[in-house]
Amino acid sequence: MATQTLDVVGIGNAIVDVLVPSDDRFLSKHDLHKGTMALIDEARADALYRAMGSGVEASGGSCGNTMAGIASLGGSGAYIGKVRNDKLGDVFAHDLRKLGVRFDTTPLTSGPATARCLILVTPDAQRTMNTYLGACVELGPEDIDPALIAAAQVTYLEGYLFDPPRAKEAFRKAAKIAHDAGRKVSLSLSDPFCVDRYRDEFRELVANHVDILFANESEICSLYQVNDFEMAVNHVRGQTEIAALTRSEQGSVIVTRDREHRIAAATPDRVLDSTGAGDLYAAGFLYGLTNGKDLATSGKLGSLAAAEAISHYGARPEAPLKELARKAGLL
């Protein structure tokens, strides 16, 4: 496998999502901030799970969703993330492998359980995420396979990895291996609260170690501490080779040192759940980029994938993205 080129290898928090319809009253009662992600401990996770209504369990995690999207488009990929050898860990591994994504990370045999994310979805399609990282915090540099990283055109890293210290070490190790092999490194900023915690480190990474940056409007404004999106665009220009910045219904802006591409949002027939929209945008964009598409077409693939994600509950594609892209004339 090491000699075979992969499109993307993703490194992230291996999480099983629990999605539950909710309302603003529930969020207020439990002191939850709509549209954000909060890290919680096991006791808080158990208490929220008991208070929530019936839900749907599905393998998730930001980077895992992106890899699922790349596979749905027909791309080749691998995933590195830590689970426990428990029921949820088996579910996570099975779901990825079933999609054709390589997943060989050795599971824990003791210690914290496989991570879960409790997602409250309000009628406005906003998702409020409460994440118990569990086994994710045990991901370390020893889990990084140098041959696997060197085989991938792009190594894609989720910003959430900056919370567990050993995962951060794994992150930096993978980035160095990728660049030493002449490959690209991509980073998703993941969440504005994540940016707030690690702003200085993220700025240094973007300027010196990241080739392709993904961020939504809130995240990129937080990174550069500005209130205006266009000001943030000016700040990021030239800091990295490519910045793909998403703006929900306003589409996306792809920024390079000397060019900008303004990409319209694809409009689904209905919007049920915004979970995974950014993850799937990254999937479409990275698939396009690693399969010879220009930046504008890659952005359109991202928009198409994101639109499919928000048309149903759950963060992974229900319809084959490759077929949708062909119908749209993008493949």
Describe the structure.
The protein has 331 residues and is an alpha/beta fold. It has one domain (6-13, 61-102, 137-327): Ribokinase (UDP-N-acetylmuramoyl-L-alanine:D-glutamate ligase, 3-Layer(aba) Sandwich), CATH 3.40.1190. 39% of the residues lie in helices and 21% in strands. The chain contains 12 helices and 14 strands. It has helices spanning 24-29, 42-51, 62-72, 87-98, 146-151, 165-180, 192-208, 217-224, 229-236, 277-290, 295-309, 321-327, and strands spanning 6-11, 15-21, 37-39, 56-60, 77-80, 102-103, 115-121, 127-132, 152-158, 184-188, 212-216, 242-246, 252-255, 260-263. Strands 6-5-1-9-10-11-12-13-14 form a 9-stranded mixed beta sheet. Strands 3-8-7-2-4 form a 5-stranded mixed beta sheet. Strand 12 (242-246) and strand 13 form a beta hairpin. Helix 7 crosses helix 8 and helix 10 (277-290) runs antiparallel to helix 11 (295-309). The chain is globular and about 50 Å long. The two termini are 26 Å apart.
Query: How many domains, as an integer?
Result: 1
Structural class: alpha/beta
Give me the number of helical elements. 12
Shape: globular
Q: Please tally the β strands and state the result.
A: 14
Strand and helix order: EEHEHEHEHEEEHEHEHEHHEEEHHH
Percentage of helical residues? 25-40%
CATH fold description = UDP-N-acetylmuramoyl-L-alanine:D-glutamate ligase
- Would you identify the regions where 5 or more consecutive residues have pLDDT less than 50? none
- Quick one: CATH class? Alpha Beta
Determine the N-to-C terminus distance. 26 Å
Indicate the radius of gyration in whole angstroms: 18 Å
Mean pLDDT: 93
Quickly give the CATH architecture: 3-Layer(aba) Sandwich
Q: Characterize the biggest β-sheet.
A: 9 strands, mixed
Main sheet strand line-up: 6-5-1-9-10-11-12-13-14
Give the amount of beta strand, in percent.
Answer: 15-25%
